Amino acid sequence: MTRMANRTNPAGNVIHTIDLSKHFDAVRAVDELTVAIPKTGITSIVGPNGSGKSTFVNLLSGTLPIDGGIVIIDGVGLRVVKAHESPQHGVTRTFQEVRLFDQISAWDNIMVVLTERRLLPSLFERLRPAHREKAERILMEVGMWERREAMAGELSYGQRKLLEIGRAMAMDAQTYLFDEPFAGLFPQMLERVKEIVIRMRDEGHTLIFISHNMDIVRELPDHLIVLDSGKLLTQGEVHEVLSRDEVIEAYLGE
Amino acid sequence: MTTLPQTLREWPRADIERVATVFVLGWAVAFMLWQGTGFTVTLMTVFAIWAILAVSLNLVVGFTGLLSVGHIGFFGIGAYTMAILASDASYDQLRTEAIPTPGWPFFAALPIAVALAGLVALGVGIVFNRFRDDIFVLVSFGFAIIAFSFFLNLREITRGAFGIHEIPRPAFGSWVLDGEVEFLVFALICLALVVLVCWLIVTSSFGRVLTAIREDEEAIAVFGYRVTHFKLAVWVLSAMMAGLAGALFASWTSFIDPNSFILLESMLLIAIVILGGLATIWGSLLGAMAFVLLEEGMRFLPFLPAEFVGQARQVVLGVLLVLLMLFRPQGLVGRYKL
Q1: Domain, as residue range, for B51
Q2: Are B220 and A62 in contact (CB < 8 Å)?
């Protein structure tokens, strides 16, 4: 990890990017993006398809390497974010196309992120009651306790979404990046995910989610980041942003 | 209406495990009773060596999802290390290739054989770590071929095609395990230790991470795991166990040449692991037993001339492998489909 001088963060932003860029050949998926994400509350990232929302989240979690610019996470400036170091920055995530460990049980999908991360100690670690209690609590919270023995690949789409959120919750991170957590859910499942997100916010976590569902975007987040063609269109408090002309024209106009 | 292939695919693991266990063990016992003690001892020794290879390979293939066809290379490194260090043949009096033979005792050469297999695996693994899926199969294939050509062509050390003779049996002080039964007991103890170590590995937190790496290595990295370190560690551990099997094999046969370490043996090994089932230790034991029974059993088929036995077993295993991939890709008692 490349550390720059520690910066204090008077605005209380948990994530701050400066000129963050990612290009795929000629396509500038994320183009000199400078945004600030407040530590408190829920931030939603919106924008048309191909506007760079998922790429932005992939850069923050180290899933994709950064091509240019800086990410400041909790006051630490980084030019390189390594995926396996993202938990140390207090960041965890879910994926747009749910990525569970399909051929192991729902229980083990949670357990695998609760146990020892260092190589040698992990060889000698057996499950402790504390591990089991935490896995049980999380599976209960996301309503997957009954299905704990099932292989993750056998679960329904909604159950997989919930299990993936549970796996992220098990990380006890400060910041959660949820890539389209509401997409494709039945109303009942959608309500459950909403409840989880609100509860996590109330517990003091930072939630950042990508969504296309404008009802949810009007209702849930406190802050909004609007992207268009990899660039920042606007950012700020939700209702204020949603009333701006350029947002209405560019994104909500239809 | 469910078709037969569907039934086979969805037949519950526990049921298949019970049926397969009873079938293979029953077959083994019947065979042994029919053929008598001497045969039983040979069969079981061959089984012990193949089982160590199969169980250790399953760590890499079944649990971590790296389809390696290079396992035989580490088996060969273990065997050759044992042969060179422990052989007490005095080749300088022969007209064939002479190699230095320090004539170490078995138990002095054994740790070197295991460590060397691990060391080579470490070097190879650092290079292989960037590969996965089909590319990994290809590079591991390359490793098996390179290892074989070393055994064949590095004549100053391996005597090439002449092979190495007079590899001693294990000895505790003056008690040499010369008898076949004594050696069998020793081999079974080694197998038991390997099974225990593998069981401890796959039931540890480390083992769970391996299965997650197999499923999605990019995703597990986001949760704070250094995937390359875990893959390298299991690769080296598995190679060390193959090295142990090689050392046992060299000492048991007392003579080795490169022909025991050809790529085909690696393929048979993969067939055993898949036949028994991926990501299960018990499956690999069953697979190894079924393989040994098939191999030895075909010798007694009255209509099969002796010189075709070798080829016939390859045909049977090849056909079995294709049938398995078609109808039960996770193998008999497997927990993972390729």
Answers
A1: 4-327
A2: no
